[in-house]
Amino acid sequence: MADQPFLTDIKTLRERARQHIENGAVTEGYRADRETVIKLLNEALATEIVCTLRYRRHYFMASGINAESVAAEFLQHANEEQGHADQIAQRIVQLQGEPNFNPEGLLMRSHAEYVEGTTLIDMIKEDLVAERIAIDSYREMINYLGQDDPTSRRMMEDILAVEEEHADDLVNMLQKMG
Ligand SMILES: [Fe+2]
Ligand SMILES: [Fe+2]
User: Fold this and answer.
1) What pTM value is reported for the model?
2) Ligand 2 centroid, distance to 65 Cα (angstroms)
3) Which residues neighbour 61 within 8 Å (Cβ) at sequence distance 6 or greater?
4) Do residues 120 and 63 lie in contact, with contact meaning Cβ atoms separated by under 8 Å?
5) What is the DSSP secondary-structure string of 89-144?
6) Interhelix angle for 150-176 vs 120-145, to 10°?
7) Mean pLDDT of 27-53
């Protein structure tokens, strides 16, 4: 024990691992409140789905002189939000939870809003607001997860970094368009 002060002794580790093997990746050492983490991840999942839908709407509706390059950006963001949704759903299952894809209540669970917007500028602004909401709520989630669930935390950190890139892309587009 003295040689490895931060580790449970190997015998205990081995014994514990054999108990409740049906829980898969969730071991006895899992320190977070699993139910709360699943609930938070389902809110993030709803946020990603709403953002996917909004970006896709904007992609198809983009028109005007700057439409082509902006639409391409909308589509790229839509696909990246879809990728985030998939990552989050996968993690929920690893935690022995169920990803909530129910359209009913989707907007209530989501942090970000679904605003269609009329002009290209409106759409970009609404997407930027949604990204800023996601950025703040994901940052809070990351702080909450702390050291208790490093895998979920790291996943959310990676997603947060992409949302920050999205926000940066959008603000640059706004600037270019005056
Ligand atoms: Fe995302
Ligand atoms: Fe995003």
Assistant:
1) 0.93
2) 24
3) 116, 123
4) yes
5) HHHHHHTT------STTHHHH-SS-----SSHHHHHHHHHHHHHHHHHHHHHHHHH
6) 160
7) 96
- Confidence grade of residue 1 (pLDDT, cut at 50, 70, 90): very low
Question: Mind listing the pLDDT tens digit for each residue in 70-113?
Answer: 999 999 999 999 999 999 999 999 999 999 999 999 999 999 99
Average pLDDT over all residues of the chain: 95
Non-local CB neighbours of 115 within 8 Å, separated by 6+ positions: 54, 126, 129, 130
Hey, what's the torsion of the CAs at 65, 70, 75, 79, to 10 degrees? 180
Q: How far is the CA of 81 from the centre of ligand 1 (A)?
A: 4
Closest-approaching ligand to the CA atom of 169: 2
What's the gap in Å between 121 CA and the centre of ligand 1?
Answer: 21
